[in-house]
Write a structure and sequence with these properties.
The complex is a heterodimer. Chain A is mostly beta strands. Chain A has strands at residues 4-7, 10-13, 19-25, 38-43, 50-54, 58-59, 67-72, 75-80, 89-95, 103-104, 108-112. The termini of chain A are far apart.
């Protein structure tokens, strides 16, 4: 199974400042079709998770453009350009290249400093 | 409105069984794959099972294979998860999720399964 490793696991950020979360996979996430199935999810307190980013860098509908995803191969990053209060929650990366199983990172808890 | 509503979560004794349901509305349920994802108390997300639109391709996480059965009724727009031989390790919120290119949603609100004596 592909192991997804996120860092940091806790991320205190000052409002208006940038934030960055790293996600590394135990093997390359490049599919034989050339696509890379690395997604990012946000779980706000008391809400169901929702996907923010698919295939490394594509924002889902309604996701603010302060969120961006990048990376390739085994190293990926989610960046928030300017953190807002509504961004508090837990962020997960997930790979969908080598399934089953789909595997998630441990989660990164973002809080306001 | 695009929506998934889970039901069937309950408190059950170890070794018991439960069937979860997930009612879909607002989108063409039969055309896409669906997943079950769970989250144990205070823990992260774990994928449980996937079924394609025609129910011809089904996969499970190793930890539930042989005990859980995913199914769907496209005439009723409903996804199911039959869970047998439950143990404390299965205690979690269970979410049904639309695939839409990799769990793109929708996500249901979740239903809580508690396995305890």
């Amino acid at each position: 199974d592909v192991v997804m490793t996120q860092s940091p696991l806790s991320l205190p950020v000052t409002l208006g400042q940038p934030a960055s979360i790293s996600c590394r996979s135990s093997q390359s996430l490049v599919h034989s079709n050339g696509n890379t199935y690395l997604n990012w999810f946000q779980e706000r307190p008391g809400q169901s998770p929702r996907r923010l980013i698919y295939q490394v860098s594509n924002r889902d509908s309604g996701v603010p453009d302060r969120f961006s995803g990048s990376g390739s191969g085994t190293d990926f990053t989610l960046k928030i350009s300017r953190v807002e209060a509504e961004d508090v929650g837990v962020y997960y990366c997930m790979q969908g290249t080598h399934w089953p199983p789909y595997t998630f990172g441990q989660g990164t808890k973002l809080e306001i400093k | 409105e695009v929506q998934l509503v889970e039901s069937g979560g309950a408190s059950v004794q170890p070794g018991g069984s439960l069937r979860l349901s997930c009612a879909a509305s607002g989108f063409t349920f039969s055309s896409g794959a669906m997943h079950w994802v769970r989250q144990a108390p205070g823990k992260g997300l774990m994928w449980v099972s996937r079924i394609n639109g025609e129910a011809t391709s089904i996969t499970y996480a190793d930890s539930v294979r042989g005990r859980f059965t995913i199914s769907r009724d496209n005439t009723m727009n409903t996804l199911y998860l039959q869970m047998n031989s439950l143990s404390a390790e299965d205690t979690a919120i269970y979410y049904c999720v639309g695939d839409r290119g990799g769990m793109g949603g929708p996500w249901g609100q979740g239903t809580l399964v508690t396995v305890s004596s």
